[in-house]
Design a protein that fits this description.
heterodimer, A: mainly alpha, two-stranded antiparallel ribbon, 22 helices, about 0% strand, globular, B: mainly alpha, two-stranded parallel sheet
Chain lengths: ~525, ~550
């Protein structure tokens, strides 16, 4: 094979954004080695610049006519571009909010940036991976970095506990995932590429074999762990409670988005034979996640645990789009993740800000915050209400689109359950809002009573402010001016060739009116 | 499957130049977003600003409806439609007709007056006025939206402001009441969205436009199911008997200006939506459900009146009387006559004015006595004769004294149900008799309320603070702004009826057209076959027969 042919086969330009992230990562690492401690003043901004240029590179890759690269191991179609964008953006906002946090916790800045960038890298590769080995390696890159990040504040026993739990459960789930993948490899006759697996399974007539179902279940177990869907969610509350708050902000958005990207790609490409089965399994996961997440969140007393259960519930909502299996379904997932990125990160920024100033995460300590810090109250209220799906905030439109797509695909029961549990979720979100706004001066908590004067000029506070304002503006306006986002989400799906046959086949199996193809004009 | 907008509205839109309704709707919301920026150590300029916005918006409404609205036209007017999220089929479609126009005006009047009534709010005034203005916009939006998703959005938009308004500025039990309110309403609004989805996705086209939804032909079972869902959703708001329990808590715990809006405007959203959706979009199911509505209406009247007796709290008594009065709206809606449906609209407008004035005056009383327990009061008339006079006038209107709007509203509903040819005479007699019982109970509990609070000698030990004294000019102004239209409608009902007349006639015609076909169907349950009878005149059919000859 001559070199030109090899270069064409590699098509290495598709991983330019990842390349930028790697270079940024090295610059951060080496810069810290050379300059020493004082580098921590500019390192985060290098990382942010790197991630932003990676996003710019992703923008240039939009509508890539030749997305397949590395002999089919990596696919840079629009679906992967948008998911990589979501992950990179979530990492950017996470860095913005983490600078002050790291500063105050007294841990090293460069290592944190390095590990976070590595996790981002893993997530970005995972979004485009279309080959089993590639999937596994990028999944592990993401997971191991996540374990490290969870235990990053190493003098905090709870952080250690969280890291250990995460590591043990994560390792077990990885093993299960790997077992499922190996079964897939064997059943398809030694194929590792997802599309080849589908062909291999078809020709081996493995559609009805029990082993394939077992492999499907194992693979889904691995994915469900990543997106923290019930009943694979047990790590979530403990990790969220113990880990540094910026880390869980990343885990709740970036890592989850990577999991959903994997779910879409793996399920639609490798398991077209078992469409009914994987729809069934994901329906069960969605039902459990929505019920468990929303109901258990009612009883939480700390903010981080409440957000943990809320993130489980949100994963349940997003799965409705996956189960719908239509263009609109996948597009609604993408749209919701985009919106969820801003509202959830905005919420976490507020939680970080509050805990930086008061050192507590208890929901009851938020009472009366309106009197001391109306701005923070406004931000947190808007983010929480958006998570609860209150119009005219972005979350409302995200939820409406998910339910719209679900109803269109005939998932009446799921949509009803989603609506009912949304009402439940409004209760616990608005409880926090009530705590902050409604309390009378005499009911103000100790933390708020001793609330320090709001200062934005401390080192690391400005980026936090920028991140907060960015998420706040996006959360309040992304709903009202949602047209570009909707278009983006829809295009990312309709331009993705691997999804189109899947869409057609899954629509074809439905009995109702979806015969005509262009679902959305 | 294609997602389409409403081509009809687009074509109408071209004829109007200025987006009047959008301006009316968005003005308070945009104005609210400026409030946090107003530099003000005292709250004076904020409240003048908010009140000014309220009045300006009301003036804009009056101007628009006076100059741009054709009273003789029963179709949607001032229509505007812009695609908002075309991927969902969500359009920013606003329009008004005879059903929504009077209620939009009512919203403007009562919300503006409520902001004036809240002149003494000193606790978190900025937040208060932001929420009031946001709620103002949402209420107008509910009445003006012509897109099911937009309607749902507006319906939900109003939730959080009301929740916070109750739970921050309310009475002792306000947090419980506010939580109960938001959970009831949010849970019920699920049915609006589900019903909207079900209707929108039915058939070949996906559209959320209300007029197009009304033109779709649904199968019977489907229509009944959607109707039942929407009935629950709007029944919570109206409220209808078993779904009413949030109302006494919310109305009595909220502060007086909020109660004015709750009773004056929010309840009407339920009644409006029942006519707009349940009748106009699902007329076939309405024929089946109408007897149920009548029965529920009677239950509301009797139950509300009896429960009002048992209340010792002034505002709770008024809240239960609201439930009773909304029962009349239900009967009117289900009457199948022009008079009855028109009466339902009139009753909504009239009750909006009366309830707002009574809740406002109870707030005026509370500011002076610091209690709402009627037994603790007594002889208040000596110390505040003006409040007493106004309160008496409001109560008289509420108990349907001739010459007041309450009388006209209830009388037309009675006329509507008795002249209705769709019901079995026995059924009508029973309904009218039972509703009349409610009508007798109303004066008893209202007059006993007046007696307990105002009559007699003041031996309760309540001392009205000197600086408050009797009603202030501001309070007199608010009360008279509400009482003047009440009396005007009472003496010359055409003031109100001309705004909706042609529309209610159209609604009645539409629902009467489907009546014979539904009644003639076989296999109906015995309840309906005995209660509903086919009216003798079926104008649409006979006309088509003549034409064929």
């Amino acid at each position: 094979m001559d070199f030109a042919n090899l270069a064409a086969q590699l098509n290495a330009g598709t991983i330019l954004p990842e390349g930028i992230v790697i270079i940024t990562l090295l610059v951060v690492l080496v810069g810290d080695l050379i300059v020493g401690r004082s580098a921590s003043r500019w390192l985060p901004y290098v990382a942010i610049a790197g991630l932003l240029s990676a996003i710019a590179a992703l923008y240039l890759q939009w509508d890539n006519t030749n997305p397949v690269s590395f002999f089919g191991a990596f696919n840079s179609d629009d679906l992967s571009v948008i998911f990589r964008g979501i992950i990179a953006l979530s990492a950017t906002v996470t860095i913005l909010m983490s600078i002050r946090y790291i500063e105050q916790s007294g841990t090293a800045m460069a290592e944190f940036m390095t590990i976070l960038l590595t996790a981002t890298l893993g997530g970005m590769f995972l979004s485009g991976a279309s080959e089993l080995v590639m999937i596994f390696i990028s999944l592990e890159t993401l997971s191991i970095s996540s374990y490290l990040l969870t235990g990053y504040t190493k003098r905090d026993p709870r952080s250690n506990e969280a890291a250990l739990k995460y590591l043990l459960i994560g390792a077990a789930s990885t093993a299960v995932f790997l077992y499922g993948v190996s079964l897939l490899y064997g059943l398809s006759g030694g194929e590792t590429q997802l599309s080849a697996i589908a062909v291999g399974l078809n020709s081996a007539n493995a559609g009805q074999s029990l082993a394939l179902v077992i492999s499907l279940v194992f693979v889904i177990a691995g994915i469900a762990f990543k997106i923290s869907a019930a009943p694979f969610h047990q790590w979530t509350p403990d990790v969220y409670e113990g880990a540094p708050t910026p880390v869980i902000a990343f885990l709740s958005v970036g890592s989850k988005a990577a999991g959903f990207a994997l779910a879409i790609r793996l399920m639609t490409t490798a398991f077209p034979l078992l469409t009914d089965e994987w729809h069934f399994v994901f329906t069960a996961l969605a039902v459990l996640s929505m019920i468990l997440g929303n109901v258990v969140a009612l009883a939480q007393t700390t903010m981080k645990r409440m957000l943990a259960y809320s993130s489980i519930a949100q994963a349940g909502f997003i799965m409705i789009g996956l189960i719908a299996g239509t263009d609109a379904g996948y597009a609604s997932m993408v749209f919701y993740l985009l919106v969820y990125l801003f509202m959830n990160l905005g919420g976490f920024s507020c939680v970080i800000l509050f805990s930086l100033r008061t050192g507590t995460d208890q929901i009851s300590e938020y009472s009366g915050l309106y009197q001391k810090d109306p701005l923070l109250t406004l931000c947190l209220s808007i983010c929480l209400l958006s998570l609860g799906g209150i119009p005219p905030l972005a979350g409302f439109f995200g939820k409406i689109y998910l339910f719209w797509a679900g109803w269109q695909a005939g998932l009446y029961g799921l949509v009803l359950l989603g609506l009912v549990t949304t009402v439940v979720s409004i209760y616990y979100y608005i409880r926090v809002v009530r705590m902050m706004v409604v309390k009378e001066p005499q009911e103000v908590s100790d933390a708020v009573r001793n609330y320090p004067e709001v200062r934005w000029d401390l080192p690391g506070m400005r980026p936090l402010q920028v991140g907060l304002v960015l998420s706040l503006v996006a959360t309040s306006l992304a709903g009202i001016l949602s047209n570009p986002l909707f278009t983006l989400a829809n295009n990312s799906i309709t331009n993705t060739s691997t999804l189109q046959p899947a869409v057609v086949s899954s629509v074809g199996t439905q009995v109702d009116v979806n015969q005509t193809q262009p679902l959305i004009d | 499957m294609y997602v389409v907008g409403n081509k009809y509205l687009f074509s109408v839109m071209l004829s109007t130049q200025f987006p009047w309704l959008t301006t009316i709707l968005l003005l308070p919301l945009v104005a609210a977003s400026v409030i946090p920026l107003i530099p003000d150590q005292h709250i004076k300029s904020i409240r003048w600003y908010a009140f000014g916005v309220g009045i300006a918006d009301f003036a804009l409404m009056v101007y628009t409806f006076w100059c741009k609205y054709d009273l003789q036209n029963s179709t949607l007017q001032l229509a505007e439609s812009y695609p908002w999220v075309p991927q969902l089929g969500l359009n920013w479609s606003l329009a008004v007709d005879g059903l929504s126009m009077p209620l939009v005006l009512l919203t403007g009047l009562i919300t503006s007056l409520a902001m004036l009534a809240a002149w003494n709010v000193t606790n978190k005034p900025r937040l208060f006025y932001v929420l009031m203005l946001a709620m103002y916009s949402a209420q107008i939006g509910v009445f003006a939206a012509q897109d099911m998703l937009l309607f749902f959005l507006m319906w939900e938009l109003e939730l959080v402001p009301v929740y916070l308004l109750i739970s921050i500025w309310g009475g002792q039990n306000r947090r419980y009441a506010a939580t109960k309110f938001i959970l009831y309403t949010a849970a019920a609004s699920i049915f609006i969205l589900v019903g909207g989805f079900a209707m929108a996705f039915y058939g070949d086209t996906v559209t959320f436009d209300m007029a197009s939804l009304g033109m779709k032909q649904y199968p019977k079972g489907f229509e009944m199911l959607v109707y039942a869902g929407l009935l629950i959703a709007f029944g919570v708001k109206l409220p209808i008997f078993p779904l009413h329990t949030w109302l006494p808590d919310a109305h009595s715990e909220a502060s007086a200006p909020i109660s004015m809006i709750l009773a004056g405007v929010l309840l009407k959203m339920g009644g409006y939506a029942l006519i707009r959706m349940n009748i106009e979009m699902l007329p076939n199911a309405h024929v089946y459900f109408a007897p149920v509505l009548v029965i529920l209406g009677v239950v509301n009247i009797i139950y509300g009146a009896l429960a009002a007796f048992a209340q010792t709290n002034l505002k709770r008594r008024l809240a239960y009387s609201s439930i009773a009065h909304m029962g009349f709206v239900l009967i009117g809606i289900a009457s199948f006559t022009e008079i009855g449906i028109g009466g339902a609209v009139l009753q909504m407008v009239s009750h909006g004015l009366i309830a707002a004035s009574l809740f406002f005056l109870s707030g005026v009383t509370y500011e002076r006595t610091h209690t709402l327990i009627m037994e603790k009061m007594g002889g208040m008339a000596q110390q505040m004769p003006k409040v007493f006079a106004l309160f008496t006038a409001g109560s008289m209107a509420s108990l349907a004294l001739p010459g007041m709007s309450g009388f006209v509203g209830e009388l037309t509903i009675f006329l509507g149900i008795t002249t209705s040819d769709a019901y079995n005479p026995t059924f009508k007699v029973v309904v009218v008799l039972l509703a009349a019982v409610g009508l007798i109970l109303t004066p008893i509990y209202l007059l006993s309320m007046l007696r307990q609070v105002f009559y007699g000698v003041n031996n309760s030990g309540i001392v009205i603070e000197g600086y408050l004294g009797d009603a202030k000019p501001r309070e007199m102004f608010i009360a008279s702004c509400l009482l003047v239209p009440i009396i005007a409608i009472g003496f010359y009902p055409k003031v109100a009826t001309q705004t909706y007349d042609v529309k209610t006639v159209a609604v009645a015609t539409q629902v009467r057209n489907v009546l014979p076909t539904v009644v003639a169907q076989q296999g109906r349950s015995p309840l309906y076959s005995t209660v509903l009878i086919a009216p003798h005149l079926a104008p649409a059919e006979s006309r088509s027969l003549l034409a064929s000859k």
